Amino acid sequence: MKRATVLGSGAWGTALAMVLADKGLEVRLWSRRDEHAAQIEADRENTRYLPGARLPDALHATSDLAGALDGAELVLVVVPSHALRGVLADARASLPAGVPLVSATKGVENDSLMLMGEVFADVLGAGVARRLVHLSGPSFAREVAAGLPTAIVAASDDAQCALAVQRVFASDRLRVYTSDDAVGVEVGGALKNVIAIAAGACDGLGFGHNTRAALITRGLAEIGRLAQAKGGQPATLAGLAGMGDLVLTCTGELSRNRTVGFELGRGRTLADVLAGLGHVAEGVKTARSAHELAARLDVEMPITHEVFRVLYEDKPARRAVVDLMTRELRAEF
């Protein structure tokens, strides 16, 4: 591959675009906003979302969607989950036929309750699954951009497509594993953001390491139940897209979702927290759709349900913790 296009100029899209450019590809980074693309191109830095990271010479920003996609041999989509459907619809006529599509978008779409792979199929047709690969795993954009050692997973229904994406992203700083469980990888990547809000709230309330460890462990259990209900493999959740990403997002200070929870635990309102965040915290929207999806599939997800109530029903975070702790006693497995 010689040319790649990245749709989405947030921190993660920019970091992955840098990875591809450092591998020797000509990369076009698309932003919906003209002024943002112009700023990136002029300053050679994404000052809004990834300040301090100097962009490689082979990376160029543009707001021209059709032009960005022209001649692309790989298309990486890294937009917020609520924007994915619209971006795919706008890009559909310009997408090069047959090239690998890589999704680094994590979430469950509100209203439709679709995973991101299902949104791809809904917009582009069921056949897209043969060339769609999901990237997930414990990976803060700032650390990837800085070249710190990181491991992620590339999951696809098509083994050869996963291998191709593995090869194009892998380097001495980014180790990429493959998986045939796209659904499990997607569910892990989406739901860890919801559990991270809960973990942050517990930290904000002043609880300790015991609380965090219990929350992560029980959060992983309910993520696994939802993955299995969607057809995923429970073992996947023991890997990078499950436990790995969950631990990082629940404990790392760079986690936007943990930050949201932390501030809620300290007593701030959701509107106030989001106004000052400056970035999308996917777990806020995913909490609603995961709550509704679990109800539809009859999957028990108590932590997710309590996060939903804290975010959307103004339930005090401390009361949510008490209600989780006093649920009916049961065996662990």
**Broad structural category:** alpha/beta
SSE run: EHEHEHEHEHEHEHEHHHHHHHH
For CATH, the homologous superfamily of the largest domain is named as NAD(P)-binding Rossmann-like Domain
Mean pLDDT over the full residue set: 97
In the CATH hierarchy, what is the class of the largest domain? Alpha Beta
> Which band does the percent of strand residues land in?
5-15%
Largest sheet: 8 strands, mixed
Number of helices: 15
Query: Which fold does the CATH topology of the largest domain refer to?
Result: Rossmann fold
**Can you count the beta strands?**
8
Helix amount, in percent? Answer: 40-55%
Overall number of domains: 2
Report the span from N to C terminus: 47 Å
Shape: globular
Compute the CA-based radius of gyration.
19 Å
Strand order of the largest sheet: 3-2-1-4-5-6-7-8
What CATH architecture of the largest domain do you see?
3-Layer(aba) Sandwich
Instruction: Enumerate the spans where pLDDT stays under 50 for 5 or more consecutive residues.
Output: none
